[in-house]
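Re: Re: token formats

Sure, here are both.
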Amino acid sequence: MAKTAPKSFNTKLFPTWCPGCGNFGVWAALKNALSEQELTPDKVMLVYDIGCSGNMADFLSPYGIHALHGRAIPTAVGVHLAHHKFPVLAVGGDGGIYGEGAEHLIKAVRANFDITVLVHNNGLYSLTTGQSSPTTEKGKKTKTTPLGVIDLSFEPLKTAIMHQVGYVARGYALDIPQLTNLIIEGMKHPGFALIDVLEPCLTFDEEKTPLWFKERIYQLRDMKGLKADEALEKLDEGPKKLVTGVLYRSRRPAYHTHLPQLKEKTLLDQSIDKIDIGDIVKSFR
């Protein structure tokens, strides 16, 4: 099968993100990753959260669902369990995935559902003009924290690694070739894949410019991943040093492989005509 050109995943609408926004890089890398895997718009499902990242729903042509804020992951899990042979990605920001949707992320990490979650992480709620988010570093001044953030920032990658999730990686929005490869590897991994994407927000964060990231980011070249304790040590280097690449892989079986009813057919391929739930209903009387 010939590769589908990345531009084939475009819609008639050009992105309306601010000039210099990291979302452009994620948009390009995602299209490249789908193209490299010879997927077509009808062979992949994207579930979008709310926010600047969620606006990507207007700019990509594959099957898509624009979920509620923080609910991209459970929606993606539902699609996956109904058709577990179909590639499913959830796309959201650090606010939706790590804030409103944190409980869904933790459940998905524990269960190891075979979906790929792509998080645009700029450390702010940028669509609503730059309020602090769960990944805003302690002490940073924002519109909602004029004296500085008091809370410790949430550590989603550490959470995933400590729960032995399938695949954990971090990319940088302006390094499109590396991010493309991280997305491909995440989609191919048989289990939950969490890809955290560092990105600048030039409109609401004057500190974290592309130069700021360039001075701190370095890559892991080996795509095999590190041991859990090694990966955690690398993450502890931030914010002075920011590692990108595949941090961790687990051989833990994906959730759906434990379900005998999904071994031969997807739920969509199974008829419900002969299913009798009468006895189950009676048990609740």
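Second one below.
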Amino acid sequence: MSNPSSDHYYANDDWDVDSWVDVIAVEYETLVRDFPFDRVLRSLPGFGSLRVLDVGCGTAIFPGYLDAVLPPDVGLIADLWDISGSSLRRAREVMSQLAHFSVDRTYQALIEDLPTKLPAETDRYDVIWAMHSFTTVSVEPMGAVYARLLETLRPGGYLFVYQLTSESYYQKFHGLYRREHPHGRNRAPFMEFEDSRRILESLGVEYEVYPQRFTHEIARNRDDLLEKYLRKVILDDTVDVGQLFRPLLESLYDPVGDRYVIPQAVNLITVCK
């Protein structure tokens, strides 16, 4: 079983990234408000020019929110890893406009291939993060991915993984799609926090967890936005999502606000080496 990457969506000129971000921005706003990234980064030696590996960088959504809360003396030199060439180009453009970021190297490859394709001579990183990146990956190789990431992290450095949980409606929508739609029946479940927890414990790695809880909200009269949102959640733009998800959506309808209120549960995992 397999899951598609998000490459199709970010490479497709018809895909409206801005509409997606309008709905999910609360995830990053909540994260940078609730976790003290500014304090953690300033605590690292050489905080004026920290080396970062952004795994599954996408279109650099997270750096945009992080940049706004960092103090002036924090500088981040980022290497970018993503399967999508268009995402890598867009992430470089976005980061070039941010006050605290610059981009060094880019790697176009699957996350699952990181153990073999991240050069052995790579300088060690002060910070590594994977923000909503470990979702469509194959779970089986991820033990080796985690081991390689921790190997390339400097002593005292931090690994951050932001990952949906089994309670998340990301999983509920995707699970319904896998059960009820022909296109979904050969798809693997999304990797979730519980998988990462099992892997880290099998590696004997100590970690901390910061639960993040929020809602995605979409007005009922915004059928266009709801359709784009649901198709992105399941990574399939051929499905009649209105019909497939109607019973589940009705259970999420708020008549007072005339909107769908979709609970999400995402955990931040932190590892200090």
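The chain has a mean pLDDT of 92. The radius of gyration is 18 Å.
- S.
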